[in-house]
Amino acid sequence: MAVCRRVQLLLLFMSLSTRFFFTQGAKSQGGVNENLVDNADMGKNPGAPLQDGKLLAAAASQPRRSTGWKLAEEEACREDLTRLCPKHSWNNNLAVLECLQDRKEDTEISTDCNHLLWNYKLNLTTDPKFESVAVEVCKSTINDIKECAAEERGKGYLVSCLVDHRTNITEYQCNQYITKMTSIIFSDYRLICGFMDKCKDDINTLHCGSVNTGEKDVHSQGEVIACLEKGLVSEVEEQTEHYSIKEDCKKAIMRVAELSSDDFHLDRHLYFACRDDRERFCENIAAGEGRIYKCLFNHKFEDTMSGKCREALSTRQKLIAQDYKISYSLAKACKQDLRKYRCSVDTTLPRAREAKLSYLLLCLESAVHRGRTVSGECQGEMLDYRRMLMEDYSLSPEIVLHCRGEIDTHCSGLHHKGRTLHCLMRVSRDKGIMDNLCQKALQTLVQETDPGADYRIDRALNEACESVIQTACKHIRSGDPMILSCLMEHLYTDKMVEDCEHRLLELQYFISRDWKLDPILYRKCQNDAARICHTHGWNETSEFMPPGAVFSCLYRHAYRTEEQGRRVRLSRDCKTEVQRILHQRALDVKLDPDLQRRCMTDLGKWCSEKTTEPGQELECLQDHLEDLGSDCRDVVGNLTELESEDIQIEALLIRACEPVIQSYCHDMADNQIDTGDLMECLVLNKHQKEMNEKCAVGVTHFQLIQMKDFRFSYKFKMACKEDVLKLCPNIKKKVDVVICLSTTVRNDTLQDVKDQRVSMKCRRQLRVEELEMSEDIRLDPDLYESCRQDIKDHCQNVLFGNAQVIECLKDTKKRLSPRCHQKVFKLQEKEMIDPELDFQLMRVCKQMIRRFCSESDAKNMLQCLKQNKNSELMDPKCKQMITKRQITQNTDYRLNPVLRKACKADIPKFCQPILNKATDDNELEGQVISCLKLKYADQIPRLCAEEVAAQEQTGQVEECLKVNLLKIKNEACKKEVLNILKESKADIFVDPVLHTACALDIKHQCAAIPPGRGRQMSCLMEALQDKRVRLQPECKKRLQDRIDMWSYAAKVAPAEGFSDLASQVLSSPAKSYILTMMGMCVVLLFLMGLLCGRITKRVTQELKDR
User: Fold this and answer.
1) Is a pLDDT exceeding 60 seen at residue 936?
2) DSSP conformational letter for 128
3) What are phi and psi of 891, to 5 degrees?
4) Cys-rich GLG repeats: which residues (predicted)?
5) How many whole angstroms separate alpha carbon 621 and alpha carbon 603?
6) I need a labelling partner for 410 at 20 to 30 A (CA). Which of 32, 314, 902, 1061 fits?
């Protein structure tokens, strides 16, 4: 115990009378108890100016009374006493002292009375004989407190020791006595043991001794203590260019604040500053145990709170932040827990740090997060002070010191209810220009207050989100950590309000940077983190595994375990929480610390003007993946890989696709991690009626992103990674990988390789990828880039998806640019070989395929549909689509696999001149097929009857041309019509009009006749000549028309060879005439030859004889 200042002049009579008063009270039930309880709200101002010798003289001159000296009987105070104090208190010196000390601020007492009171208090606290009263009243307490029992008697140390330990006093009489002594001591700083000796120089340097001196109350020195406290707070906040208070004085100031922590009357400056506010806000709150302080703290930012009281409360709160013991209620409630969890015995820390409120909060919060038991009373106190720190940034000296510039620039005028703190959070989140020390101070404060554990700690958030919580999260208990998660789930929904959205994202920005600040995640994953990521305690950090890196470690082990062959996996509960956090982070790119840090430059460069909607930042980065810096590209690529494995990470997309998921994909959505199944399901059902535009756009965007790198398609990557490494090394783009693998599969198939180089599981997944790519031209980047201008010119109003743009390009193929035309032709060739890749055909004919071709091989699907095209059950739209594909096949033999296979030997034989002029990418415009028709008119219908007949869906155009053959002027067109007539004579199947008209007759009359080689046509002709057979009128009419057409065609059709010419002459009615004329021409030519021989020059005999 420090040596106390002693005053040698002792007023023995006063001390004896006082002793008599307490002794008598102790012996009776009413004595001390009644007197002391009546004075329970004694004042506590710790300060006053120095006294001079006149005070002592005045005290010495006081008359001695044999019956007991009373303050009320003294002339110096009689007038003031009569004016200010109730009469019933006059017989009790301590009641009179309390009355005069706690008078109203605007009430004055005489100088003589002030001097008399001062001497009375001074002698009470310094007279060694006064200890005998304490010994008698606090006998058992002194024995319990060993430190006080060991104090040397007779020097006044005992009373000071009891005041120091008054929080441990349980004996009622002693507690009341010490409370009265405390009220006396704290009314003047010079009465506090040792205070003057330790702080004299600091008082003079800081000019605290001149505060409120004068005639008003020269002995009321609470302002001196308040001045020193402000100096101490300023020193902590500024640290540089500020006077440094001596260490002994600092301890004395903090000790005074601690001793005045239970009753606000003991803090004389705060008592006088807040007396009216106490009556306004805390009228029904009983003094003691820090209750008035807490009440005033809770009303600190009320509009009716006086500025002077608010300032005094802030100063006290700042002292509490430096030493938690200055809060009586907190120190008392958490005393056992602090001892239990060794929060106050860490020898590695300096006592100043150990005593800080932040250290206490972190230590006890760590115990709570580890599942340890902390008393409810202590947790309640912690909640109050965590809320206090979040409400007023100025209570955190690090923020005041390091964030001063940001506050002045961006957040001035917001100093209440946590608004300044949220403003700083917004600056850090949105602008990214915050000083590192300020950012670190904010992060530290969020960890200390831990608002993730209870949203009510953040008053700004609580007020902004109250309506959302009441509607969207009403099923969750108030204060539950799941409230924040619930709010995040409703972010960007109709239930969210703008102010709540801003406050929530500002807080989540900092919570996301330390995995421990999400209490649910920490509780579920702390064992996994310690086992796998080598983390330490909740309030401990490691430079090898900083807080931001722990979550990265966790999600690496939650995903990709199969891919990377990891044996160490997360527990199921932890994996669920990791997934939840990833879902939340996908809502805003700034909630992913690694992504924001590495992509800050790229976000500004590529996405500053394209991110008006939530979640668009990541989409923008994915769209510009090739343009990003290497660091940003890596983190975006990794995140996209995670999305491909678990698309539920894309919370906004899943929210938009909820109707489709519920109808078609709910089984996949229920999986903890879907391994790509859910996205595959969404792609397959992209054109269902439940699919809305937002979902369709999101699904298509993800498909487009997948084309940038085959790793972005999880199922494809897992199925084909070994095949890619072996067969397609150094190829990254998915479309190139698909082409590479599919080419390998095709070559192996054509060469009948027994062991195909591409594995079976890869071939199956490759098939899925090829089918997906056929749905949207944008999923084939090479085709899309080649035809971009053509799409703009010819298909501008056609929507992407459903292969509509591809179909448009096919329909306008003749007007396409050469490069686009070549690409479309290659696509058609691929589709004809494998009709399942023809998205439009498969979509339009989906039901017909199920009806007619359910057992057919995928590669024979079109052939099957063609065979059933004229069925009565065939859907008209499907029939039209089949005909379009047949017409396409007639443009080039390479688009007709059946014809190509059947005629592979004859095409080079008869049509080589055409092939010589052709290239692989250019169409032959039907030249090869026309060539084959002319050579094999009677055989082609048998082999390719459907293809030959595919000139028009119903044959009406040909019918029109046939009827009007005489009117056709164009020789080339006339020639083609004649060819059609010739082909139709070979088989009725290639004449749609006649075949339709005679379908029933063929069924009844010619059912046993196989088609081809004109057999069914001959059968009908015989039936027409047979009068016993009654054909359908329409069939009879069409057959008669055909006979007439064939007759005319025979007349006008030019002979294509000598055999045709001979046949026509022999079959002509005028063949005799023709043969006679031909004979005469021959004779004539012979005679002319004879004559010409005689006319030539005669050769002389001489020449002959030579």
Assistant:
1) no
2) G
3) -80, -20
4) 108-170, 244-304, 373-432, 433-495, 569-629, 690-749, 757-817, 873-940, 968-1028
5) 7
6) 314
